Amino acid sequence: MRFQVNQNDIRLDIFLTLMMEISRSQVTKMIKAKEVFVNDKVVKSGYMLKEDDIVVVNHVDEDCLNPVKMDLDIVYEDDDVIVVNKANGVVVHPGAGNHTNTLVNGLLYHTNLSNLNGDVRPGIVHRIDAYTTGLLMIAKNNKAHEILASELADKKTYRKYVALVWGVIKNDTGEIDAPIGRSQNDRKKMAIRADGKRAITHFRVLKRFDKATLVELQLETGRTHQIRVHMDYIGHPVVNDPVYGNRKLFDDSGQCLHAKELGFTHPRTGEYMLFDSELPECFINILKKFE
Predict the structure, then answer these.
(1) Could you give the CA distance from residue 186 to residue 126 in angstroms, rounded to a whole number?
(2) Alpha-carbon torsion, ordered 147, 223, 17, 102, to 10 deg
(3) N- or C-end of the chain: fewer Cβ atoms within 10 A?
(4) Cα Rg for the chain, rounded, in angstroms?
(5) Any idea which residues carry the catalytic annotation?
(6) Around Cβ 229, how many Cβ atoms within 10 Å?
(7) How far apart are CA 56 and CA 183, in angstroms?
């Protein structure tokens, strides 16, 4: 598991406790067992991290990697890549409180995946939140994973989302350029911070309702919770988001946010591939309430 630090002067054990959502004692055991490296070096629990430090955790809970038979909506598959349309409520990879029945468990039952991450995220090049639906690319071998991850880091991967947000957005198009870092008030949330990582989201209005707006969003960067944080920042939080916006919830199906389009260059053939997906039923059910 690999993390890039996005703030200065935070203890290693505290950082990993927050990022991995496990107990501090578990983190301490991993550090003492020399399973944690900072910039390729073994350090102590109290080591003070700096921005852009790279923290690598080589601890694997084998119980998390059990293959599980699961209905997968596979949009495309070959020897190198799988494109999956992730369902609502499905966690992408094992973590605290989610040790099985994740997308990774289902994929491991279906096929072999890359092990480039060396952790409980085999094949995962990028991820979306449990209650965000839509398209993900998965690497089946290390070479494909390396190429896809590089393209993602170089901002060449095309990702377009559709979201229903509160309030009526007046401008037809817009760009949100606001840095994102971990919230100082709630470590499980992200926030706009002057010392955060640069984050850019482009949006275009698709349809306006009396109390909400349907928008299309394109990511230029890929920060954690980027769309949810950015839309909340401009006063238009995503409808049914249980974390950001402090607005009423319609149900427990999660935010009305769908990764609709995904485009990338095939790691073996060099062919550009573009995939599209329909809005899920949980999104449509809430959308109908505004129509």
Answers:
(1) 24
(2) -60
(3) C
(4) 19
(5) 129
(6) 26
(7) 22
Provide CB contacts within 8 A for 142, sequence distance 6+. Answer: 114, 115, 116
- Taking the model in full, what pTM does it have? 0.80
Q: Tens digits of per-residue pLDDT, 111-154?
A: 999 987 765 678 889 989 899 999 999 999 999 999 999 999 89
Non-local CB neighbours of 146 within 8 Å, separated by 6+ positions: 116
Rounded CA separation 40/74 (Å): 37
Token duo for residue 253: 């199906």
Task: State which H helix or E strand residue 135 sits in.
Answer: strand 133-139
Q: What is the pLDDT of residue 2?
A: 77
d(CA 135, CA 125): 12
Q: Residues in the chain with pLDDT < 50?
A: none
pLDDT at 259: 98
Q: What angle do CA 277, 233, 216 make, to 5 degrees?
A: 20
Q: Which domains does the chain have, with CATH numbers?
A: 2-57 (3.10.290.10), 62-154 (3.30.2350.10), 160-258 (3.30.2350.10)
pLDDT tens digits for range 184-221: 887 678 999 998 989 999 999 999 999 999 999 999 99
The letter for the amino acid at 287 is: L
